[in-house]
Amino acid sequence: MNANMSTKRMKLLIERFFEGETTLGEEQAIYAYFRAGDVDEELEPMREMFLDFSALETPESLSEEGTPASVAAEVPSAVSGDRTSKPRWWKVAAVIAVVLTLTFGTKYMADVRERDALAAQYGGSYMIVDGKRIDDLTEIRTHLEQVLASADRLEKQFGGRTFVQEAERDLLGAFDDPVQRAEMKRLLNE
């Protein structure tokens, strides 16, 4: 293969490197290319950067000569377009950050909407509970829900009849005279 083809391969690898799609072996091939010294003049401006990156390699990834052991095996796969590289940690971190932001942002917005709805419904309201004034709308809402729950329990306990209906029945039962009972019933229904 001629030097022009090698430069084309290297440009492809470098492009994939900047897109975060290279494997460790492909990155080592790029570093080896720039360490070799015979760098195409078109790629020369990137030489220092890749030499700096290659200095960050761990000693375990290098052979005795200081060059990556898998360079020869990885270059052909890079040319054929092998896309088996693992996702970069920053991509995973970015996805997690977006998910967390959306989750907490949605919850926060729901809380704000609920608070605004309470303020619109009960704005300026307060309650006196055990001699203490309560202005907090969420606390007022809690007390109102408790009172309504107690009222529902009492209503179920008396079989759906109200105290007023019970009192009317007792009052009408106290009259023995049908005329007086009818007159009282008329007065109650007015």
In words, what does this structure look like?
- The chain has 190 residues and is mainly alpha-helical.
- Among the domains are: 3-86, no CATH class; 159-190, no CATH class.
- It is built from eight helices and two strands, in the order αααααββααα.
- The chain has a two-stranded antiparallel sheet.
- The longest helix is centred in the middle third of the chain and has 34 residues, at 89-122.
- The chain is rod-shaped, with a radius of gyration of 41 Å.
- The termini are far apart.
Runs in which pLDDT lies below 50 for 5 or more consecutive residues are 68-83
Mean pLDDT: 76
- The strand count comes to 2
Order of helices and strands: HHHHHEEHHH
Which range does the strand content fall in? under 5%
Output the strand order for the largest sheet.
1-2
Tell me the helix content. 55-70%
Measure the end-to-end span. 109 Å
Describe the protein's topology.
Blueprint: H1 3-18, H2 24-36, H3 47-55, H4 71-79, H5 89-122, E1 127-129, E2 132-134, H6 137-157, H7 163-173, H8 178-189
Antiparallel strand pairs: 1-2
